Amino acid sequence: MATRNPLLVAWLLSTAVAAPATAFAQQQVSNGHDHEPNQQNDVTGISPEATQETEKSSFFGDSSLVLKPRSYYLDRDRDTKADSVGWALGGALEYKSGWLSDWLRFNATVYTSQKLYGPEDEDGTGLFKPGPESFTVLGEANFTVRFAENHGLRIGRQRFELPYLGSHDIRMTPNTFEGVAIGNTSPQGFGYMAGYVDKIKGKSDDEFVSMSHAAGAKGTDEGLGFAGARYVSDAGTTVGAIYQRTFDTFDTVFAKVEHPFEIIKGSTINANLQYTGQQSQGDELIGAFDTSMWAAKVELKHGPYAWRFGASTTEDDHGIIKPFGNPANYLSVIVDDFDRAGEDAYMLGFSMNFGRVGPGDMSAFANIVHGDTPETGPAASADETEYDLTLDWRLKEGWSERIWLRARAAYIDQDNNFASADDFLDFRIIVNYDFTLL
């Protein structure tokens, strides 16, 4: 295992926290809430901010321009394989117009990841292009056409947030796609989405390639079609399903049902079940396979605390493939997704909201996931256990308002009886900060 200079690491981390905070004095509301980005399994349509407004606005007068700096440090110390370390500064510059005659809106976003630290012999963080190399890309440029209240058509470079087809925003830039999508956005009741995606830009790249190429069929140019629906009842039950076909390559079917049960006032149990099925089809450009995965999670929430238990099982014919982002397994955590061929996995987790701590709100969550895989045969691989801890601190005072600091640590312990086994420690610190220019 390579040894890091502790003074260098301390300087990098302190600078990663301080740089975005001192560079800007205005902010916009930080996005999201405490979450595990590797568990993106909601079946949603066109993004709400693109279609839910009903009052007429000015196309230029109601435009917004938002700078979203991000600083990201990642250090992965391995026992037997090469280490990876990198520190990047970048983020996004997002322009969004108002509505033209209440039916047309334009959106464009430029993403960048600039290398501040990244030795060539310790590449592999995913923060940069291989090399490692800095990059800048026009990741989004699209029009949204609203043809009815909360119903829209979006054309161009865009983000999706669907199971196995999404931004998977876990590095410096997200996956983005070239395509067309139609759908509606309804927090309750029936929602739908459908579309065609021609190309994808990976989260560590600046070029768009065909969907079949990204799936592993190099030099091919097949796209992907999808259609899905979701229903949310008044009682909070969610039922969703989506079908995706990468033509002449493979199909993915995903379905889920989730329901909250109130035990006593302030305490609920959420019961969740999901299914994924995948199989090759057409010319089988990446080979023949047929596999599926079931996953379940039960979560008890009481006041600022939450406890959860999850389990999943994957057929031994093939693991679940995710070339277009957004793994959906409830047991997908910081490093691994626990959906290898023949894998049975179990998770225990705990979350706590500390409330106000200094100038912001602090929360933390931890997970332990164990994956058991076949010891012999074509699906044989090393059993492993991942131990995770995430600490979030959202600052809300003065110049620091709306800065989101996230520190993450994961330790992966693999069965050393396998020659390819490799224990390692993964540490990350991410700073997100929104600055409104217009």
Features:
OprD family outer membrane porin; 18-stranded antiparallel barrel; 3 helices; two-stranded antiparallel sheet; disordered N terminus; Porin; mainly beta; 438 residues
What is the count of helical runs? 3
The name of the CATH superfamily reads: Porin
Order of helices and strands: HHEEEEEEEEEEHEEEEEEEEEEEE
**Category by helix and strand content:** mainly beta
CATH class descriptor name:
Mainly Beta
Low-confidence runs = 1-33, 50-54
CATH architecture: Beta Barrel
Question: Which percent range fits the helix content?
Answer: under 10%
Instruction: Provide the number of structural domains.
Output: 1
- Beta strands, count: 22
Signal peptide: 1-25
Pfam family, one: OprD
InterPro entries: OM_porin_bac, Porin_dom_sf
Organism: Shewanella jiangmenensis
Structure description:
By secondary structure, this protein is mainly beta. The protein has a single domain (about 5-435), classed as Porin. The protein contains 3 helices and 22 strands. The chain has an 18-stranded antiparallel beta barrel. The chain has a two-stranded antiparallel sheet with strand order 6-7. Strand 4 (about 135-150) and strand 5 form a beta hairpin. The longest helix is centred in the N-terminal third of the chain and has 18 residues, at about 5-25. The relative contact order is 0.14.
